[in-house]
Amino acid sequence: MFEKLVEIICDYVEVDPSQITPQSRFMEDLGFTSFDFMSMLGQLEDEFDVEIDQQEIADIRTVQEAVDYLEKLSE
């Protein structure tokens, strides 16, 4: 799940995949804008066939938090 998320992140921001860690923060470390993040969420819904709750996703700051959330939705 982490590796796939890294691939998707690289579709939205100019960052070397090797620089993305579970602790990387979307806005502060990876340079996401709010628009980038929301666009990526749509792709994640399609990719993983899940329904992302906008209220819950608002608390997600790091790549690992996103992985944990997606894994929970996929169960």
Structure in a nutshell:
With 75 residues, the protein is mainly α. It has helices spanning 2-12, 34-48, 54-57, 63-74. The longest helix is centred in the middle third of the chain and has 15 residues, at 34-48.
Round the mean pLDDT to the nearest integer and report it. Answer: 95
Report the strand count.
Answer: 0
Q: Supply the helix-strand structural class.
A: mainly alpha
Biggest sheet architecture: none
Helix content: 55-70%
List unreliable stretches of 5+ residues: none
- Total number of helices: 4
Q: Please report the distance between the alpha carbons of the first and last residues.
A: 13 Å
Overall body shape: globular
Helix and strand element order: HHHH
Q: Using only CA atoms, what is the Rg?
A: 11 Å
Percent strand:
under 5%
Molecular structure report:
The protein is mainly α. Helices cover 56% and strands 0% of the residues. The chain contains 4 helices and no strands. Helix 1 packs across helix 2. The model has no long low-confidence stretch (mean pLDDT 95).
Salient structural properties:
single chain; 75 residues; mainly alpha; 4 helices; globular
List the helices and strands and how they pair.
Layout: H1 2-12, H2 34-48, H3 54-57, H4 63-74
